[in-house]
Amino acid sequence: MKRIYSVIVENQSGVLSRIANLFSARGYNIESLSVAPINEEGLSRMTIVTEGNEQVLEQIGKQLNKLIDVIKVIQFGEEPFVEREMALIKMHTDMNSRAEVLRIVDIFRGKVVDVSHDSYTIEVTGDSTKIDAILSLLEPLGIKELARTGKVAMIREKKR
Amino acid sequence: MKLKGAEIFIESLKKEGVKHLFGIPGGAIIDLHDALYQQNDIEFILTRHEQAAVHMADGYARATGKPGVALVTSGPGATNTLTGLATAYMDSIPVIVFTGQVPTALIGNDAFQEADIVGMSRPCTKYNFLVKDVKDLAYIIKKAFYIATTGRPGPVLIDFPKDVQVAKAEFKYPESIHIRGYNPTYHGNPRQIKKVAKAIASAKKPLLYVGGGAIISGAHEEIYKLAKKLQIPVFTTLMGIGAFPEDDELSLGMAGMHGTYRANMAIQYCDLLISIGARFDDRVTGKVSEFAPYAKVVHIDIDPTSISKNIKVDYPLVGDAKLVLKDMLPLFDEYSSVNWKEVRKPWLDQINKWKNEYKLAYDVETDEIKPQYVIEKLGELTKEEDPIISTEVGQHQMWVAQFYTFRKPRRLLTSGGLGTMGYGFPAGIGAKFGVEDKQVYVIAGDGSFQMNEQELATIVAYNKPVKVIILNNGYLGMVRQWQQLFYGRRYAFTNIEVQPDFVKLAESYGIKARRIRKKEEVEDALKELVAYKGPYLLDAVISREENVYPMVPAGARLNDMLLT
Predict the structure, then answer these.
(1) Going by fewer Cβ within 10 Å, which terminus of chain A is more open, N or C?
(2) Is the CB of residue B347 less than 8 Å away from at least one CB of chain A?
(3) Is residue B549 a part of any domain in this protein?
(4) Count of domains observed in chain B
């Protein structure tokens, strides 16, 4: 079972190491991780995707809460939430493939952010299934390089 | 007025009520020792190894309930503390270790005696700090003591660069402290407490499972009241020994791998297991899937991560054991018409049957010295004295747990979680500094004692009458026992017959010592040891291949005990 944890932490040295150690010391694996400061000063948000059975996931949640530098832990599961990741994809392109690459990028509402004689660099955002989908379509056309962020996620506000 | 970092350090420790510091000086910490030398409020105790210094701080903390503090230099001085920190971390002991560090400008340069002790100690401390600016020092020290002593206690390390020790700042010690991400839950949820009280009152075969957390929170009186009022039998873990008087009729002694037959059987047949400050360690549970198969489980613990970690819990209750029980006890008033003795009779009768089926025993006919006999005899001779017993790790540790009758908390110092050989002797010394009016007996194996025997110098230097009893079988006995039982008697590398003459060794430090080989000498030697006014070492040569029984083989069910 996969789970996304959004963890608000004190933004200071050693915090990332404490969190990484929490996972490694217990043999849990981090599938993806993204960290950046949030609007409140001195705090960062870490979004961690991990996998495990119910007991392991419960333990991870508790262990994260136990860390002194952790202010808040949000687990995504029951409630509806928005998740996004971004990918930068550098494509080999030639006369034959350019049009097709652009069509695919257009369908996925991506953007070409850099162009050269024989390459396009594409930016695309979405949930991970969307990113997976565009990658599978672009793959046969010649991916040169790929950089993919970890997930970020947020609970959806209740609709009236 | 501005103070130097070293002076802020001393003033802050005074504010925290620190009277003793254990450690060894060195290049990167010399300014702190220089400042200590020029004052009289805090005594610095010079040890012979940094590991021992941390164990002393740990023993001091366990015996007194106050945090123990160690002070060592950078690099090797700092890395030598890791075993002590891990020991304290596993057993939730408030220890604060200050390590010297190379000047901030040199950190990361592989400078002489530089070690990334903050990185290395991160997994074995509750929290740690690098002091980068002298202005933060007082606040960091306050925070360190607060974190170490509150919630589930644990060790904290402060890494203190040399330039920060001499840099100056205004000294103002913070009155209070608030850490956003750290708010331990002390009071239990009232609704959950009610639910648990109801479950306890309606159980037919309840059983109290008392761990080290009960001692840390000082819940022994409440546990006694609960057990007596509702006639609930009690077993403890190794760490919980002393939280319930072992000579009480409701006491089942210690449970687990080398627990009593009746305690282990009671676990397997109880219908409600009430855990207080324990963590379902594998040495207690045996095979987890067949642990307490008929029981609903109540788990009272201040650390939510302990709950449902190893065993699925039916009634989780997060809070301080003492406060939770204090809130719970009045709820049993509504059952005042119940005759608990009568209600509990079938269950207690069953337990008594188990008690009579198999008792802890040893060969009383032989002329050889049986280790159990030494411990039992020491128990008789020191009953009135109410001393502190510190153990090393191994067979002798289990025999102490089985054969010494503990009646009060904070009387047994032992490395339960990490199982650190070399812990007991320095821990006993540390305890002696904290509890001057109590006698301290260190019970050691010959293997463990050799891991920190250099501290004989420390008890001489400070004239501390610590008494050491070595139960000497010339083996790393617990491992030898496993080899005998499970490895076809292949005693691989456990024979340690080559060893110092412990009597001469002690005498070379000017410590009185004696060796005994026959059972008939035991009583006389122990009387001499108990009565002697200074430090004393007794080398008791015991039956070489004596085993600890009962024994639940690792990974077996609790009812599958080897009895002889």
Answers:
(1) C
(2) no
(3) no
(4) 3
SS3 of B213-252: HHHHHCCHHHHHHHHHHHCCCEEECCCCCCCCCCCCCCEE
Whether B204 is a known active-site residue: answer no
The yes-or-no answer on residue B353 being catalytic is no
The topology (CATH level 3) of A2-76 is Alpha-Beta Plaits (3.30.70)
B130-B135-B139 Cα angle (round to 5)? 70
Nearest CA among A39, A34, A37, A43 for reference residue A6:
A34
Global ipTM: 0.87
Rounded to 10°, the helix B340-357/B220-230 angle is 100
Asked whether the beta carbons of A18 and A64 are under 8 A apart, the reply is no
**Alpha-carbon distance B388 to B84, whole Å?**
20
Instruction: Residue A43: list chain B partners with CB under 8 A.
Output: none
B112 catalytic per annotation: yes
Quote the domain boundaries for residue B328: 190-357
Is the domain of B255 the same as that of B315? yes
Does a structural domain hold residue B349?
Answer: yes
Do B452 and B407 lie in one domain? The reply is: yes
Question: Chains A, B: CB contacts under 8 A, how many?
Answer: 37
Give A67's contacts in chain B (Cβ within 8 Å).
181
- Tell me, yes or no, if B192 is annotated catalytic: no
Q: Are residues B332 and B424 in the same domain?
A: no
**What Rg do the C-alpha atoms of chain B give, in angstroms?**
24
* Shortest CA gap B182–chain A (Å): 5
Q: How far is CA B178 from CA A18, B143, B146, B182, B498, in A?
A: 21, 9, 10, 8, 55
CATH number at residue B293: 3.40.50.1220
> Do B242 and B147 share a structural domain?
no
> In one letter, which amino acid is B164?
V
Instruction: Identify whether residues B58 and B161 lie together within a single domain.
Output: yes
Per-residue pLDDT of chain A in tens (160 residues, 90 and over written 9): 889 999 999 998 889 999 999 999 888 889 999 999 999 999 999 999 999 998 899 999 999 999 999 999 999 877 889 999 999 999 999 988 999 999 999 999 999 999 999 999 999 999 999 999 999 999 999 999 999 998 999 999 987 7
Q: Is A68 on the interface with B (CB under 8 A)?
A: yes
Which of B126, B142, B143, B162 is labelled catalytic?
Answer: B162
CATH number for the domain running over A82-155: 3.30.70.1150
pLDDT value at residue B359: 92
Instruction: Find tokens 């002070």 and name the residue.
Output: B71
Distance of CA A16 to the CA centre of its chain: 16
CA distance A98 to chain B (A): 49
Question: Same structural domain for residues B383 and B347?
Answer: no
Mean pLDDT score, B206-216: 98
Specify whether B333 is located in the same domain as B304: yes
Question: Which residue, B144, B154, B150, is CA-closest to B93?
Answer: B154
List the catalytic residue out of B2, B43, B112, B204.
B112
- A2-76 against A82-155: fold identical: yes
Q: To the nearest whole angstrom, how far is the Cα of A103 from the nearest Cα of chain B?
A: 49
pLDDT at A2: 87
Contact (CB<8Å) B308/A58 = yes
Does residue B554 sit within a domain? Answer: no
| Chain A residues with beta carbon closer than 8 angstroms to that of B308 | 55, 58-59
The domains of chain A are located at 2-76, 82-155
Testing the interface with B: which of A8, A62, A70, A73 to mutate, by most B Cβ within 10 A?
Answer: A62
Q: Which one of B178, B182, B303 makes the best mutation probe of the A interface by having the most chain A beta carbons within 10 Å?
A: B182
Give chain B positions within 8 Å (CB) of A69: 181
- B9 and B129 belong to one structural domain: yes
